[in-house]
Amino acid sequence: MKKTYVLDTNVLIQSPLALLAFEDNQIVLPMVVLEELDKFKNDDAERGRNARQVIRFLEQLRQSGNLLEGVPLASGGTLRIESNFTAIKLPDDLRPDVNDNRILQICVGLSRTCDPLILVTKDIMVRLKSQMLGIPAEDFTNEQSPSIQEQYTGRMDAYAPDELLNGFRKKGMSPNELYIIQDGKRLPIAPICNQFFIIHSETSEKKTVLGRFDGKMIVPLKYLKEKPFGVSPRNVGQRFLQEALMLDAETAPLVIVRGAAGTAKTFYSLAVGLQRTFEKDTKKYRKILITRPNVQFDDDIGFLPGSEQEKIAPFLRPVIDNLELLVDQDDGERYRNEKELSGKVEELFSRGIVTAEAMNFIRGRSISQTYLIIDEAQNLTPKQAKGLITRVGSGTKVILLGDPMQIDNPLLDERTNGLSYASERMKGSPLCFQISMKSEECERSELAHDAASRM
Question: Do 143 and 28 contact (CB within 8 A), yes or no?
Answer without folding.
Answer: no
